[in-house]
Amino acid sequence: MLPALGCHDSDVRKFFHHLRLQLAGTVEAGFVTPVNVLIGSDDERALRTALYMVFTNAPHPLCIQHLKQNVEHYLTDKVGQSSQVRRSIAAEIFETLTNEQDEEAFDKLAEHLLAKYR
After folding, report:
1. Alpha-carbon separation of residue 22 from 16, 19, 40 (angstroms)
2. Who contacts 92 (Cβ-Cβ below 8 Å, separation ≥6)?
3. Tens-digit pLDDT profile for residues 38-48
4. How many helices (H) and strands (E) does the chain have?
């Protein structure tokens, strides 16, 4: 797991470019050997942009724990909800909604949650 990067877009891109070169092993005629990587994140913009620029074909899964933290921070900083409400909303999304196996049940529960918290 990589440490949190709170840098500018160009710094993050340079870091991933360096990492790609280190992982590639060989560079011939200006071309880097393709690298198969899987890097998860909380979908932070600079990180996401750098990953797509440097590792163009790499899958980029999102980390549920970090997304949950993002929701809780948003509810604190932008909406001003109490800790009890934040935990309740986050639990309904990340412990109930994400466990739905059936697409129809997921959509129904998602609509219910949207109506509940509007």
Report:
1. 10, 5, 19
2. 113
3. 778 878 888 88
4. 5, 2
